[in-house]
Amino acid sequence: MILTVTLNTALDLTYRVPRLAPEGSHQVREVVQRPGGKGLNVARVLAALGHRTVVTGFAGGLTGSELRELLAREPYITDELVPTQGSTRRTVGVVDEAGGGSTQFNEPGPHISPEEWSAFQETYARLLRSPGGDGSSGDGRPERDGDEDGGGGVDAVALCGSLPPGVPVGAYAQLTREAHAAGVPVVLDTSGEPLRRGLAARPDLVKPNAGELAGITGTTEPLRAARAAQRRGAHSVAASLGPDGMLLVTPDGMWQAGPPHSLTGNPTGAGDSAVAGLLSGLVEGLPWPERLARAVALSAATVRAPTAGEFDEEVHADLLSRVTVEESSEPAPG
Amino acid sequence: MILTVTLNTALDLTYRVPRLAPEGSHQVREVVQRPGGKGLNVARVLAALGHRTVVTGFAGGLTGSELRELLAREPYITDELVPTQGSTRRTVGVVDEAGGGSTQFNEPGPHISPEEWSAFQETYARLLRSPGGDGSSGDGRPERDGDEDGGGGVDAVALCGSLPPGVPVGAYAQLTREAHAAGVPVVLDTSGEPLRRGLAARPDLVKPNAGELAGITGTTEPLRAARAAQRRGAHSVAASLGPDGMLLVTPDGMWQAGPPHSLTGNPTGAGDSAVAGLLSGLVEGLPWPERLARAVALSAATVRAPTAGEFDEEVHADLLSRVTVEESSEPAPG
Q: Per CATH, which fold does A155-334 belong to?
């Protein structure tokens, strides 16, 4: 099974309004509520791909209860969130039905106390060393999992998103080292200082976008920036290039892949779908180019879905067959 | 004590952002949560004026629990909300700290079932006939109340705001008749068809703004529209004229009052403060011009307060001494 960590979970609200008018009053036509935060989004996509996922991180207050109620309805996802005194944040995405654009409002996360951080670390250590179940999800659906021997346990960890106030900025480095000590590979998807610090613990894969990569390496050219991230500690780097797809730099080679044609839609959650594609390919033992193709196809299928962060399985299957993956040769040293 | 009815309660969230950018992503600086819906806002102002208030209406789901937790912290307010299966709505007000403007998003209210509507009617009937307490609020603060004999009971009812789906459109007419049968005067603050239907039950006072009044009477000139509302059943009409103050048309005379100077600020909740001013003046037995002056001063003090729907007691006291009330004579029939 796969473990995703979301320290700054959120209750994601999507409001559809006929047209967004600043300083106006809007009657919201439709409200969609979902458990949010990057690691929970990744888990939902993994579940849709048939992978059992355990989610941990923090949830608190009545908004946290609301999030956990919604999470309990998702098949293939096990809730191991740790309670907090402070209330889980909300995010509000306002979709303008006339223009199609989305305007996002993110509440600040609750402050995490030292005791809560300790409780999380205990939960994380326990999960990493859990023997796992019987390899099935318990609802009769077949599971695509990395443990063909039915042994369960954690096959991979994804560390996702921003850190709430109170959590040490080196948190992801520490969590990466612990996972490695338990023999579990780590995918790290964060930005800024938490990413910079996390790199030092040598995560197996990081998935920054070009801007995030430039932010920590000082280099805007994606390939050079990915190489710089490797020198700082990442084994492999999957740099998302927005509508141009993704660049993957690994010890075994480099590949670039893009969708078959340019796509318009809502990019919210596209990066989380890419992480789910890479993670599922990792635990299934797929070759790198297939992992990359899956990440790009899932990401594009998410952009095309009517609801932010969802993806259409048919669109995904169609795109998967048409994503072009090209192997790159080492450029001349710049 | 005063009873306020809010059938479509809301958890009001105010988000402060540095600058509102449509299609942008905003980190919310500060979140303020308050129990909302017009009748709850009226109750909060009444409480600040020293009047014990009982609030009823509906609350449900985890958002309803959040609302009731916040309500429990308010002195002078007793929660008699009736549970619903559906979840209480949220409203989100986004305040642009650069421009000062506010953009409002209102979720739709939950559907009220026939059983829930019956449960509300039973609660309402019980409250109308309650003998009341000992005339004090129980927390040692002196109470300004209409029942000098200490007998408690309901001195006035305010019926406030929109109707959630499932509640009959004639609800306010029915609730007005029941209050009158119990000998309790009624202030009605709603709009559209619920107001039009409510007028037929002869409420003691209605408080539409000029637009709402025009909507049901077809007349944009406030005095003529107020007269038309009286012909349709209202004993008295307090028409809010925005920054120009308020026009009061009663069987005993007509008055108009405005703030001493034009005010800038956030008008959210100003109408609810006006209702609280009129209601408190009613139960204290003040003459009409004093009720009107209080309504205008409270309304203006609310516009000037930094937080939507709050008012500054000093600003209120200062304005109250400077509001000008002018008696109008009957105009020539138009």
A: UDP-N-acetylmuramoyl-L-alanine:D-glutamate ligase (3.40.1190)
